[in-house]
Amino acid sequence: MTARKYQLPRPQYVYDGPQFVAVIEHKADGWHVIIRNHKIGVCADRVAALRLINIHATEGRSDD
Predict the structure, then answer these.
(1) Residue 42, domain member (yes or no)
(2) Residues 6+ apart with CB under 8 A from 16
(3) Which domain holds residue 45?
(4) Which of 12, 18, 28, 36 is buried deepest, with most CB atoms within 10 A?
(5) Is 2 helix (H, G, I), strand (E, B) or coil?
(6) β partners of residue 59
(7) How many structural domains does the chain have?
(8) Phi/psi class of residue 59: alpha, beta or left (left: φ > 0; alpha: ψ in -120 to 50)?
């Protein structure tokens, strides 16, 4: 069996259809949420990070 090289975690990009919304990055202290070049916060897990993006990305938006 061969040893696998350690790979750095890649940022994950979040889209709303064709529109780019945010980036989440997994680091030692949790999932970092970045929306429009503004660091929003750090979440314990990926699902919580996606929820945070959903809350911030839909603020002030009306879907009539």
Answers:
(1) yes
(2) 57
(3) 12-56
(4) 12
(5) coil
(6) none
(7) 1
(8) beta
